[in-house]
Every structure is written in structure tokens, then in C-alpha cells.
TrEMBL record:
<feature type="binding site">
    <location>
        <position position="33"/>
    </location>
    <ligand>
        <name>ATP</name>
    </ligand>
</feature>
<keyword id="KW-0547">Nucleotide-binding</keyword>
<keyword id="KW-0723">Serine/threonine-protein kinase</keyword>
<dbReference type="InterPro" id="IPR017441">
    <property type="entry name" value="Protein_kinase_ATP_BS"/>
</dbReference>
<dbReference type="GO" id="GO:0005524">
    <property type="term" value="F:ATP binding"/>
</dbReference>
<dbReference type="InterPro" id="IPR011009">
    <property type="entry name" value="Kinase-like_dom_sf"/>
</dbReference>
<keyword id="KW-0418">Kinase</keyword>
<dbReference type="GO" id="GO:0006970">
    <property type="term" value="P:response to osmotic stress"/>
</dbReference>
<dbReference type="GO" id="GO:0004674">
    <property type="term" value="F:protein serine/threonine kinase activity"/>
</dbReference>
<keyword id="KW-0067">ATP-binding</keyword>
<dbReference type="Pfam" id="PF00069">
    <property type="entry name" value="Pkinase"/>
</dbReference>
<protein>
    <recommendedName>
        <fullName>non-specific serine/threonine protein kinase</fullName>
        <ecNumber>2.7.11.1</ecNumber>
    </recommendedName>
</protein>
<keyword id="KW-0808">Transferase</keyword>
<feature type="domain" description="Protein kinase">
    <location>
        <begin position="4"/>
        <end position="260"/>
    </location>
</feature>
<dbReference type="InterPro" id="IPR000719">
    <property type="entry name" value="Prot_kinase_dom"/>
</dbReference>
Length: 324
């Protein structure tokens, strides 16, 4: 537990806080998600960890291990120093088709691998597509907090995801295929990269989520006249944005679409070098991971003390956490 030192906070969410840490021995940086022990370590957290652990692909943030502190369960993973793909689009306004295709090819490659490994993400969005800091940035899919195993749940029913990216069938409150819903979210990501806006938001009333949902259900979108988009790209978007999931283009069909295949990197033809990696045997044994999760579920014993002492105790805990 003492081999890492905290560098800074890098994000926060409903389930925990993400911090950048440095391995004192190697100097390597990692991202660590801190989740408070006790009630917050629920079935969703367990599935997030087990699903993420099973994945090893260059377009997915690499899971390293889970650890325990006296107060938190920690998920240690690869650090993508290039930030969010969403931030890159915000700075650029929108991408050219060539640049959008470059990132979309990587996104689809990662999602295809997830589905091959029987994991659907269920919250694919540009904020969950990180980048490394290389000259030609590599997409790194992250945040498997809403993911589900297709082996355990062949059909999903719970509504998961971000409103602007959610597929129509997810909003219907009926059973749906999470992998097919992921395809829709990929389409939204592609549209945003090329147009610089969300396809189903009303440009005049973007914060009206009810209107966004209605436009999603009716597949009401258009491409602005001032944005040049090729016929091939429009065709791909039209085949993704289909309300009936049974008629929507599949990941396999996307990979064979003419627009997708243009300038496709050699590593993505017929698989990739990652297929030779030992994907079924990550560095941390499954028995150890399960044991740590079970231990983290136990309620913390917090002594009853005065407000003044609680404040002091919390300060000490923070100091100890920073030492870790």
C-alpha cells in the first residue's frame, strides 16, 4: 500500500474520486478510483471491477489491480495523460472527417473487443473516451461503472447512460440488448466529432431533456447545412440511427462499411497484436480480487466522538491517505 504516492485529484463521480498516483519504485503514473468502503461497494461496483479486469486491448484503459486502504477500495488502472476526447473536440469545435474517422475506428475496435469478451459498456460517450499523450493519440475507453456482462445478463432492462447518447430502446423501459445500444452511442459520438453538436438536442433549447428524449425516440436529427459531410458518412450515420434495434447496423457491419474502411490502420485488419496477450490472466488473480471486494463491503466501524475530535480525525485520515 505504501508504494504509491498521490499526485493530484483528476476527477470525481457519484461512486468515488479519481486520483493520479505515482509508483515510488518505477516512477510510473496510474489513475486510481477511490470508492468508500461499506455500503457503496455494491453489486454494480463488483461487476465494474470484474468486467474491466477481463479486458485487455489497446483502445481500453488497462485494469491493473484493486487494493484496500483503511477507508477505501481502490481500483488502479492505466493513466491516459491526453485527457478526454470530448475536451479535444471542444477546443477544435469539430473534426474533419479524416480525424473523426481516425478516432471512430479506434472506438469501434475497442467496443467490438468488449462485445467479443461478452461485456457491454452501456455508457459510451466522448467523456469516457480518453487519449494517451502520443503523437497520434490512442483512444482509451474508460469507466465501466454501468457495464454488464452479457454472460450474466443477456438482456438489460435498467436505464443506463447519458441522455444525449442513450438509444431509443433503452428509454422504452423494456428489455434490450446492451451491445446493440452501444452501437447507437458510438453513432452519437461520431456525429458530435463531425458536427460539433449533439444530434438529438434542439439547438434552440439544448437543456430541455424531455425534448431530447422525444427527438431520440423519433430519430429526429439533421446535419447542418454549413457542415460538409460525405455521402458515405451520412449513409453510416443513417444506418446507426435506426429506432428498431433489430434493423440497426451491427458492429461487424460497421467494420465492413466503406467509410470506416478508408485509411484503416493495418493493426485493425483482421484483429490485432493484442490477441496474443494473456487476456485471461491479468496480473491480479480473480480470487484475490473477489476477496478484496468482500472485505471492502464490510461496514466501517466509526467511533462515536465529539465534533471537534471528528474534525481532527478526518484531518489525520487525509494525511495518511496522502502518504499512501
Amino acid at each position: 500500500m505504501e508504494r504509491y504516492e498521490i499526485v493530484k485529484d483528476i476527477g470525481s463521480g457519484t461512486s468515488g474520486v479519481a486520483r493520479l498516483v505515482r509508483d515510488k519504485c518505477t516512477g510510473e503514473h496510474f489513475a486510481v478510483k477511490f470508492i468508500e468502503r461499506g455500503n457503496k461497494i455494491n453489486e454494480n461496483v463488483q461487476e465494474e471491477i470484474m468486467n474491466h479486469r477481463s479486458l485487455k486491448h489497446p483502445s481500453i484503459v488497462q485494469f491493473k489491480e484493486v487494493l484496500l486502504t483503511p477507508t477505501h477500495l481502490c481500483i488502479v488502472m492505466e493513466y491516459a495523460a491526453g485527457g478526454e476526447l470530448y475536451e479535444r473536440i471542444c477546443k477544435a469545435g469539430r473534426f474533419s472527417e479524416t480525424e473523426a474517422r481516425f478516432f471512430f475506428q479506434q472506438l469501434i475496435s475497442g467496443v467490438d473487443y468488449c462485445h467479443t469478451m461478452k461485456v457491454c459498456h452501456r455508457d459510451l460517450k466522448l467523456e469516457n473516451a480518453l487519449l494517451d499523450d502520443s503523437t497520434a493519440p490512442r483512444v482509451k475507453i474508460c469507466d465501466f461503472g454501468s457495464s454488464e456482462s452479457l454472460l450474466l445478463h443477456s438482456w438489460q432492462k435498467s436505464t443506463a447512460g447519458t441522455p444525449a447518447y442513450i438509444a431509443p430502446e433503452v428509454l422504452s423501459e423494456k428489455q434490450y440488448d446492451g451491445a446493440i445500444a452501444d452501437v447507437w452511442s458510438c453513432g452519437v459520438s461520431l456525429y458530435v466529432m463531425i458536427v460539433g453538436a449533439y444530434p438529438f438536442e434542439d439547438p434552440k433549447d439544448p437543456m430541455n431533456f424531455r425534448k431530447t428524449i422525444l427527438r431520440t425516440l423519433t430519430v429526429c436529427y439533421s446535419i447542418p447545412g454549413n457542415v460538409r459531410v460525405s455521402v458515405e458518412c451520412r449513409d453510416l450515420l443513417a444506418k446507426i440511427f435506426v429506432a428498431n434495434p433489430e434493423k440497426r447496423i451491427t458492429i461487424s457491419e460497421i467494420k465492413n462499411h466503406g467509410w470506416f474502411l478508408k485509411n484503416l490502420p493495418m493493426e485493425m485488419w483482421g484483429g490485432g497484436s493484442w490477441e496474443s496477450n494473456d487476456v485471461n490472466h491479468p496480473s491480479q488473480r480473480i480470487e484475490e480480487v473477489q476477496s478484496i471486494i468482500q472485505e471492502a463491503r464490510k461496514p466501517l466501524k466509526v467511533p462515536t466522538v465529539s465534533r471537534h475530535i471528528i474534525g481532527s480525525s478526518m484531518a489525520i485520515d487525509d494525511a495518511e491517505l496522502n502518504k499512501w
